[in-house]
Amino acid sequence: MKKQQIRAWNIIIFGFIIAFVVGIFINFKVAKSKPEFEPESEDKSMEEILRMLRSIQKKTMSIPKPTQNCHFASLEGRKCYQEDRVTCDLNLKIPLFGHNGLEEVKFGAVAVFDGHVGPMASEMASHIFLDKFMLNLNSSIEQSSNLKELLKSSLHYSKRHRYSGSTAVVALIYNNHVLVANVGNSKAFLCSQKNISREAGAASLAGLHAEELTRDHNVHRLDERARIEASEGVLKIDHDFVPLFMSHVPMTRAIGVVTWKRYGVIANPEMTDWRSLTSKDEFLVVASDGIFESLAPQKVCDFLNEVEDHSDPSLLAQQLIQKAYLEGSSDNLSVVLVPLGSGDLL
Fold it and tell me: Transmembrane ranges (predicted)?
């Protein structure tokens, strides 16, 4: 009787072992044949990636809250989805060391992010840029007077997207000065009163002059082209004679996208020095490149000068992007207008 019981238990135990081994084998085959995350093929064409992204990226654009003297407008335009993102806040408070020790001072930040191959990178940047900048400030009080370095470090993101990237143009306004960081081909510039003649020893003012605070990162610049070619990046001329990186984008610097880093695309921002704002400076303009497909910065300043009513700068921003659209722009359009002539800005 005992032998029969032992034999029965042996059979049961052996059956469990067989079932366990078979289960492992089946799961291993399923895991090999249908991985939870199928890796992308390096040979997958950019057109396929774009089609895939366009089918899933019908997302609501995150709209920042307007603040005093900060006015913006965005338009999807002739594209079937919106990749631009805007961040704007002119009522930020930061701790800085002054003559009387640590003081809380007011400053403003304006940023435009123009996404490409999807809005994921521009969405990420617009959500975390200000938080990261303020965190860097709060954790480095002893270095908070060096806003230039803190701004530069705040545009380096640990989370990167494999294919989606973005431009970044950021302007800080503090103590009647402006500082700009730029990655890619979005722009920041000032529209300032210009002197055209002198009558009776006094200058007469007419029109607005565009002073660009950024330089585009593209292969028209010899330093940018040399870096791309040294990394064996592929350049192609489109039908408008615009050199495109990997046949798709005109810029040679971008945040987010991982796959292009090996071909010389970098995320290092190019910085200006602090530029003093004067009574002649009327507007700070920060915008995505869709505006400049049809309007050069000087044309933007001319438009702002010709408009008689500046009482509603938000409406002015809307009129500007509509004008760029009607002039033929085929891209997303976003612009932030910061009126500087009121005298009460920072």
Answer: 7-28
